[in-house]
Amino acid sequence: MHFSIPDTQECTEDNGTAYTGYNIHINGEYHCTVRYKQLHNLHEQLKKYHDSDDFPVFPPKKFWPLTVGQIEERRYLLEKYIQAVGQNPLILNAELFNAFLLTAQQESTGTPAHEVVLNVFLMNGYKVEVNSSSNERTYSVLEKVCNQINLPSMYVYYFSLFLIQREENGDLVVIRKLQDFESPYISQKNIKGNHKIMLRKSYWDIDYDLELMLDTAALNIIYVQTVSDIERGWILCNKGVREQLATLQARGAKKEYLELARTLKYYGYIQFKPCLCDYPVPGSKVIISAGDKELNLRVEIPGGEIKEGSFKVTRMRCWRITTHNDIIDNGEETVLRKDPEMDLSFEYLMAKEKLQWITVTSEQAILMSVCLQSIVDELMLKKTGARMKEPQDYRGGSFCYMKRDGSSLIITVSQSSSTDTLSSTSNGTSRSPVRSEPTISMRRLSEKLSSLTGKPSKSQPLVENDAFEGIGDDDL
């Protein structure tokens, strides 16, 4: 998960007291504004349920009003803290952390809890209307959608809700996957542009298709997504195959359609908008797709020929996101760019003892990073034999949320609930909610290649790749 605190804002409480608010962005989108004391309160609760010896250090308190420079220093330290917390999978998946972020989103947007109707679409435009609460979390909305289309509960988390934008030329662009720390209603309402919530596959290994295709509802979801991806050119096929697919589609032969589509190039991939890469040469214009344990690059070389490059995730040692060119000097004044450019840089094992940094410049760099992480997570899941989670894996619980005015709420999370129940309290402690997750054995990269590592510019912390394996001569 990509956390940042790019800026602060001066806020005022209802009683007129001024304070500094820190704007938290997650995966490139504004999520909430919080005070220092709110994050400190969260930190103290997290330490109770996690190994304090290996817990990130929280920026120290100050006893006097902060200067402008000290506020900036605190912002920087808070950003490093939440980035470190966000790289710990045990904390990132904890109900306490997710419920805090959800409640902070609600408080920051001033959205009162009320009943709403959410429209969730399949990729063919079919609409599923869901009766929901404005503060209902993503997993609960997902379960309701899947229940309405009669998808068995064991298959719910093979799918996810995505925010997708339709551009002026009709193309659909995947903005991001909705996460369990947010309300789909609030996120859709507060993001600029014409966005729809859509249901798509949330796995990469197409072998999962074989089981899902035995269920009518799952088969239909996969089928309509595949038809959409072929129509948009995400999946490549020649004229002859396209005619065969059209015949199968006209007959309603969904299973046979998928069996043929699964043999095609880029089946099961997500394609990103055209961007720039420094490989094979700096400034190369490329189309990047993620899937089948790789990032695939297509680049047009002089003469119009298309060349492909494949970067396997198991040979990526690490990656990071860098934001740059965020300040524009037009000769008269210096202003912040509204949509700063971003780089995704990954360190790749090109050959034995040869690591090379590859950099992609794209407005979807964060989405690429999230896709890489989810591919790695799935690889590790399969490696350890763990199963996909199911609705009953969510357990209820409660925690203490400190509001910006210093008062407290006990946040109660019901199992697979339609709402998160909030009740006020002036003080008190609570037990952290627990979310049952598959235990995944993780290992860190050995240090044998550390001497080959360069030092990229100031940016997000490196994301170590747990699927990286030192590949031998025979594999290269």
Describe how the helices and strands are arranged:
Layout: E1 3-12, E2 18-26, E3 29-34, H1 36-48, H2 68-86, H3 89-92, H4 95-109, E4 115-121, E5 127-133, H5 138-148, E6 159-166, E7 172-177, H6 184-190, E8 195-201, H7 208-212, H8 216-231, H9 239-251, H10 254-261, E9 270-271, E10 275-277, E11 284-291, E12 294-300, E13 306-312, E14 316-324, E15 327-329, E16 334-336, E17 341-351, E18 354-361, H11 365-384, E19 397-402, E20 408-413, E21 420-425, E22 463-464
Parallel strand pairs: 4-8
Antiparallel strand pairs: 1-2, 2-3, 4-5, 6-7, 6-8, 9-11, 10-11, 10-18, 11-12, 12-13, 14-17, 14-22, 15-16, 17-18, 19-20, 20-21
Extended strand count: 22
**What portion of residues belong to β-strands?**
25-35%
N- to C-terminal distance: 31 Å
Radius of gyration using CA atoms only: 23 Å
The largest sheet, given as strand count, sense and whether it forms a barrel, is: 9 strands, antiparallel
Short description:
The protein is α+β, with helices and mostly antiparallel strands and 476 residues long. The chain contains eleven helices and 22 strands. A hairpin with a 5-residue loop joins β4 and β5.
Written overview of the protein:
The chain is an alpha+beta fold and 476 residues long. The protein is built from eleven helices and 22 strands. The strands form five sheets. Strands 9, 10, 11, 12, 13, 14, 17, 18 and 22 form a nine-stranded antiparallel sheet that branches. It has a five-stranded mixed sheet with strand order 5-4-8-6-7, with helices on both faces. It has a three-stranded antiparallel sheet with strand order 1-2-3. The longest helix is centred in the C-terminal third of the chain and has 20 residues.
